Amino acid sequence: MLKTCYFRPVEQYLTIWDLVLTPIYLIILGYMAKSYRDKHYPVGHALRKYYLPGLWVKFAGVIFIALIYQFYYGGGDTFNYYKYANIVNSSFWDSFPTWLNLIMRVPVDNDYNLYPYASQIEFYQDPASYAIVSISALLGLITFNTYIPTGLLFAYISFSGIWAMYKTFYNSYPHLAKHLAIAFLFVPSVFVWGSSIFKDTVCMFGLGWMTYTTFRIFNYRDFSLKILLLLGLSFYLIAIIKIYILLAFLPSLALWLLLTYSHKIRSTAGRFLVKIMAIGIVILGFAFFSAQFSKDLNRYSVDRLAQTLETTRDWIVYASGDEGSAYDIGEFEPTITGIISKFPEGVTVTLFRPFLWEVRKPIQLLSALEGLAFIILTIMVFARVGLFKTFRDIFKNPNLTFFFTFSMIFAFAVGVSTGNFGALSRYKIPCIPFFAALLIVIYYQTKLKKTPLYKKSVNRGELV
To answer: How many C-beta atoms surround the C-beta of residue 438 within 10 A?
Structure first.
């Protein structure tokens, strides 16, 4: 007796319009980028040769994501954001007020005209995911609601944040312009998974500008309106979409401030007082931060963090099925002590795995090769500098302390809570540029000199 087989049809997200419009948008965005480069980085400028290549690899990442999700995965969250954005924009010509309320995610109870649209959007009750839907809808108005052109706009906007972050640390280490460009612009996982219609793309925009603006404020006392608006926007986007990035960023920034300003005080008593004040400010800041975002931080409070991580990891492992993407760092008690005991495993899986022998699918090979490169570079640093001197240099230099603290906290957090190599390849990208920059600076500058974060020759009025 023949058994009837049922196949779920693959929804077609890419259309002929993607094929037609993509070259047009590439030409337009490429021309805009070239004009910007020529204006801000004339011939002879050290950064000129990295600007356009850094942007073009992100554009390549958009096209890669579109093809891989359409023809390999047959769908995914990036297409869901795009699909729901089209539902939002379908209301634009019917009723502009309804469209505007959908963009702002007004509760359906406040406007029953929203129901026909909101009822079709799975993410309407999820502020983090719906933020990407809203951004996609806004950009979709100028891309005729086509996927790849919308993704190109995501990449173009996100690149401004990545570039700002790169410039922040280039100004500290101008002799490492090429090497830092590799760390911030050309790591494959970062420009692939941070370039299309994803939460990660928006978060990389926010992380880049938040890094740039906070460092500029504390080094140049730059409280210009433009800086404050960029800081507020970047902070807001990360807080709404992935607040745990802030939970890694803020203590790293606090340590950077502590080391930076304590070095400028000659008096031992004065340095001690500054450290005590800094610790107090950090504690009060976190108390205020927690109060303001208590609803979103609820899952990450100390008494619930362990259970949150265990639940998240178990769900992702279950969802991955038998497709070869799951990993296991071993069992741990759902307590703070149990989580901390997995610190080495969590950091290792994020920065160095999957190992080549763990690759089960072609898509994992990219992550495996990247992890191997980080293993080799880490070994080279320890061999050249020495284990003890490496850590001594890290904690003597504020920039390296910032790199190290953020990358370790973030790598540990996503490593213990994910349980799936596919998801991890995306979740980990905020910490990858910082870890790469850490290794590069230590390797090429074993005796770090005290240099200002922004050289006086740099135009203080220039933002990017």
So the answer is: 25
The half-sphere exposure of 136 on its side-chain side, counting CA atoms within 13 A, is: 28
Residue 461 has pLDDT above 60, yes or no: no
Q: What residue spans define the domains of the chain?
A: 16-157, 296-444
Rounded CA separation 413/252 (Å): 14
CA-to-CA separations, 302 to 242, 292, 294, in angstroms, rounded: 18, 17, 12
Residue 182 · residue 166 · CB < 8 Å: no
Residue with tokens 């406007």: 111
∠ Cα 225 227 231 (to 5°)? 115
Predicted confidence (pLDDT) per residue in 191-231, tens digit: 999 999 999 999 999 999 999 999 999 888 888 999 999 99
* Structure tokens belonging to residue 333: 């008690």
pLDDT, tens digit (0-9, with 9 covering 90-100), for 382-422 = 999 888 889 888 888 889 989 999 999 899 888 887 778 88
**Distance in angstroms (rounded) separating the CA atoms of residues 134 and 111:** 18
CB-based contact 18:146 (threshold 8 Å): yes
Cα gap 19→41, rounded to integer Å = 32
pTM, full prediction: 0.85
102 vs 105: CA distance, rounded Å: 5
